[in-house]
Amino acid sequence: MEKNDFGKEYYSNPKYEYVRTLADYLFPPDEDNWEPIEGLDIMWSVESGYSGLPFKRQDYDINENIQDSLALMGLDPDKFWELMRFIHTYSNSKFTNGIQLEEPLFDTMIRFGESLNNDSAEITVKIKDKKLFQLSQSEFNDCLYEAIYDYCKKRKDDPGFRGSAINLDENERVERDPSIQIYDEYPYFEYIIDKFRQDKELPTRVKGQKGSRNKRLLISRIMFFTGLTRNKGFNEDVNALKGIINKYKDKPIDIISGRFLV
């Protein structure tokens, strides 16, 4: 199937409902309401075999832990399968072939300006190893702080000033530990489960229940199934997943996909 033909399939086939919903959340229309194509591009990469997923449908179908939870939550297993393939391909393209984002000039200048707002601040100017200035006058620091603030205020709506620079050199691609990919994928699954689950008014457990309604446990088991971790603890409880969430929760994701540039 050609990509143009797949586009019709992507937007019309019910099995891509979870994928399209997540794509709309991750890549919303711009101010002119142009329909983003990132979701289509990622799913086409999956369907064309580019992504080389490390997990198989037949193993997914017989995984009782996952299938029982999906059934209890009222989630469609076919739609969820497509969602798993989509999320893994997108996130994997960031953390195994990623582009490191540089700090926006706006943020650098604001951070520098804030450092001047201190009575003990000193400014040192060097050319190579030759020190030209070393200033600590608070009045000068105040003037420089105000100048930086005024400049940043004037350019706060400039995308080139606020945005992060990227390096497109394929030799500069980076790879990160799988644990940060787990952290990245978690909220994507959480968003779709919360949006489509049908059991919100039911108790977490009832007598004789086969499987778990615990959202976080389901996601933890998905991370184990998809091969992002070999820690069997992910298949048994949520403690290992909680540890990763707590480890990275205050650290921004400063990397984008080297394939999709998002």
User: Separation of termini?
Assistant: 25 Å
Q: Give the integer mean of the pLDDT values.
A: 86
Helicity range of the residues?
40-55%
The tally of helices reads 12
Strand order of the largest sheet: 1-4
Task: Please tell me what the overall shape is.
Answer: elongated
Oligomer: single chain
How is the biggest beta sheet arranged? 2 strands, antiparallel
Given helix and strand content, the structural type is: mainly alpha
Spans where pLDDT lies below 50 across 5 or more residues: none
Succession of helices and strands = HHHHHHEHEEHHHHHE
Number of strands: 4
Layout of helices and strands:
Elements: H1 3-12, H2 17-26, H3 38-47, H4 57-61, H5 64-73, H6 77-95, E1 98-100, H7 105-116, E2 123-127, E3 130-135, H8 138-154, H9 159-162, H10 178-196, H11 215-225, H12 239-248, E4 255-257
Antiparallel strand pairs: 1-4, 2-3
Notes on the protein architecture:
- The chain is mainly alpha-helical and 262 residues long.
- 52% of the residues lie in helices and 6% in strands.
- The chain has helices at residues 3-12, 17-26, 38-47, 57-61, 64-73, 77-95, 105-116, 138-154, 159-162, 178-196, 215-225, 239-248, and strands at 98-100, 123-127, 130-135, 255-257.
- The chain has a two-stranded antiparallel ribbon. It has a two-stranded antiparallel sheet with strand order 2-3.
- The chain is elongated.
